[in-house]
Design a protein that fits this description.
Length: 363
């Protein structure tokens, strides 16, 4: 027992000695240094990935901005042809937008690019000073874009219409066949369209096709059949809008009992695009019938009829104008009609029972 006690005292003295404590501290420091090295390496890896991401993203945005600028000013074609750009913007608006876009979009991504390069290559850059200067230029770019945008919006603040009424030659037949003349957009496989309305025939064309033509059919006030063409446009003033509306040249043809309505009209690339469109109203006398060809799809503009049939479902059928409105003559299926039901309210009070019914329409 005495020997065991002495061995324990020796072991305890060794464990509490300065040498043992120094060894423990050294081992702990080595473990801590190892963990710290691993965390620092992981942090550098994450920083490198982040720097690479913002560098690549900034370069991509700056390249895209450069392409958009050169495309906009007509150096080369990329997205929107220069002819169409000139129809929407004036030269001064275009150049101010380019300048504002360079400052408002280019500067933030240039700073991101510099930060990415600094992270990746440990470049010593005084980004605080550079950032202060570029921040001021960025604000200038924002102001330029806002002022230019307000100027562009002012080009659309007024609207005007020009109405043309054409009486159609009396036809021997009581039935008229109406079809659409398709534009180049509908005939070509590859579409070169912009703003959903304009279609550029080719790069050298001096005009574009505008596909904003809508057709409505109403009852004539007399025994004559006539077509009302309403030309619409916006502009910076009422006079300017009316002038642009008057420049719209829309023509159609009537041969025997066939009416051909183009689903487009032409706009010169030398004029300005301000939302021009054409609304056609065919005035049909009572007793006159018509067949709506399926080529009119997309042209019908919520045509009213007594069966509440949707525009697309009206195509391919014969419709006759009655005193109550258009009535389908050969619809095989039951047309969609407006139905009515009664809503009943019951009130019970000291004076008795009160029942009130009101019709409510459903579709």
């Amino acid at each position: 027992m005495e020997s065991l006690r002495k061995k324990g005292e020796v072991f305890a003295s060794k464990m509490t000695s300065d040498e043992t404590r120094a060894r423990v501290r050294t081992s702990t420091q080595r473990a801590g240094n190892f963990i710290g090295d691993v965390l620092r390496a992981f942090g550098k890896f994450i920083a490198a990935i982040f720097g690479l991401a913002i560098t690549a993203g900034s370069i991509a945005v700056l390249v895209g901005l450069t392409i958009a600028i050169f495309s906009g000013i007509g150096v080369f074609k990329f997205a929107v042809p220069h002819a169409v750009t000139n129809m929407v913007l004036t030269d001064s608006q275009l150049y101010w937008l380019v300048a504002g876009g360079i400052l408002a979009i280019g500067i933030p991504f240039t700073l991101l690019l510099l930060n990415g390069l600094k992270i990746l290559f440990k470049v010593k850059l005084n980004l605080r000073m550079i950032g202060a200067v570029m921040g001021g230029l960025w604000l200038v770019g924002i102001v330029i874009c806002i002022i230019t945008g307000m100027g562009i919006a002012s080009e659309y603040k007024r609207s005007a219409t020009v109405k043309e009424i054409s009486t159609l030659i009396p036809m021997a037949s009581e039935r008229i066949y109406i079809r659409a003349l398709q534009g180049a957009y509908d005939e070509q496989d590859s579409h070169n369209d912009f703003f959903d309305d304009l279609f550029l025939l080719d790069d050298e064309a001096d005009s574009v096709q505008n596909r904003m033509v809508r057709l409505d059919i109403e009852q004539s006030e007399n025994d004559s059949m006539y077509l009302v063409a309403i030309h619409y446009s916006r502009g910076k003033s009422y006079e300017h809008a009316k002038e642009l509306a008057a420049e719209i040249n829309y023509s159609y043809s009537v041969t025997d009992s066939v009416m051909v309505l183009p689903n487009y009209f032409h706009l010169s690339t030398a004029s300005k695009y301000r939302g021009q469109n054409v609304k056609l109203i065919l005035k049909l006398p009572t007793g006159k019938a018509m067949i709506l060809d399926k080529s009119l799809g997309g042209m019908l503009d919520d045509v009213d009829n007594i069966s509440d049939t949707y525009d697309w479902d009206m195509l391919g059928h014969e419709w006759k104008m009655t005193s109550e409105g258009l009535e389908c003559q050969n619809c095989s299926d039951e047309p969609k009609r407006r139905t009515f039901r009664k809503e009943t309210t019951v009130n019970i009070d000291s004076t008795g029972v009160h029942i009130h019914s009101e019709p409510s329409s459903n579709y």
